Amino acid sequence: MSEGLVSTADLFAALEGYLSVLCTSADTCRRAEDRPLYEKHLAATARMFLALRRDRSLREIKTLVAAERHGYGWSYLSDESGSRAETAFARFAEIVDRLAPTS
């Protein structure tokens, strides 16, 4: 994959990687206070998947990632599981940031 160029397959693979880590982190979460946050992140990931699957709208996926980035900025997921989820999201968001700009 060239710098700055992201294929649809790369994008789906990155989203799948984030979802996998997020699910594992949610399953191993020990703090009840974090569970609603994981549910929100999982729901946002489902919306991202649908945006890509239905019409591959770059504008919509970028908007959803921006909202999720804001959500991560206001909340904190505890422990190592939370750190893994946040890191996985940052990796996915970085790939989305490399997508062609939308007008």
Describe it.
The chain has one domain. The model has no long low-confidence stretch (mean pLDDT about 85). It is built from four helices and no strands. The protein has helices at about 10-30, 35-55, 60-75, 80-95. The chain is about 75% helix and about 0% strand. Helix 1 runs antiparallel to helix 4. It is mainly α and about 100 residues long.
Write the layout of secondary structure elements.
Elements: H1 8-28, H2 35-54, H3 58-74, H4 79-97
Helix pairs in contact: 1-2, 1-4, 2-3, 3-4
> What would you report as the Rg, rounded to the nearest angstrom?
14 Å
Percentage of residues in helical conformation: over 70%
**Main β sheet profile:** none
Low-confidence stretches: none
Please name the defining characteristics of this protein.
103 residues, 4 helices
Summarize the structure.
The protein has 103 residues and is mainly α. The protein has 4 helices and no strands. The relative contact order is 0.20.
